[in-house]
Request: fold
Amino acid sequence: MTKLFQLFFCLFLLAPTIVSAEIIDRVVAVVNEDLITLSELNNEGELHMEKIREQVPIEQRAEAMAQLRQQILTSMIDRLLIEQRAEKRGIQVSNEEAEMQYFQILEQNNVEEKDFVEKLRQAGLTPEMYKRNLKSQITRQRLLNREINSKIVISNTQIELYYLQEYGQESSEDGLHILQIGCLAGSGEDLNSKPDAQRRVKQLRGMVMAGENFQDIAKNYSELPSASDGGDIGVFKEKELSREMIEGIAGLHPGEISNIIETRSGYQFLKILSSKSGNTITQAPLELVRDDIIALLREKELKEKFDQWVIQLREHSYIKEQL
Reply:
């Protein structure tokens, strides 16, 4: 029995009592054979809505709430389309698998669940929402591996062109092209205390040294502003760097990773992509960074193809929004 039929069946059974009762829920979207209700939408965005009530001036609150609900509904529709497609392809992820992934994340980050729950709360999430997102992410990844990722081929021409453009050959600036990953430290009993920040950054450096992509790790785990750019802070002359950074990269060649550097705000480690002085350019050898380049190009192409894939999925689905 589909969700849509179940709802109508329940309404039919309860019709005599509903006539005089206040309607407290309604359908806000029909997605093929499934429904999204207002209560589901409100539960999804409950903590974000609470922040709007607390922080947004009352005269702007209605507009901000409407924009938030639309964003949440769009996200829920896309997620439901992916889940429907995965089900048709026979891809299933159990709640137990998502639960196991949740506790693996706690273990990998060596963090107590109560501290993690508080971090989630600050980000506008509950553990249940986070686990639901984990389940959705696992489902999405398996579906993308089957429908998109397996079809992406990165050519040698693409790799060599990216290498020339991004590893200093075409740069006109003298200096060092640097990537960074770092963890911030707080004080006292704060989760981000200095020993904890040092432990976290050691773990991230270990992941990079084990062969994981530097810029992927930076984007997903670094706590510095450069994380959104994959840790890329650009080209710097040595005199423009802090004393700690100069000492940390002393003797490094392009492509190599520094030891952990203590800073006033926490800990970090660096990678030199290339160096240029006058007409002399030193680059990380292509073979040393080939896997990094492939991972970056694959991620870029996957995002582009995924966006197109979602558009096509929407075009071939029945979607009716009633927000």
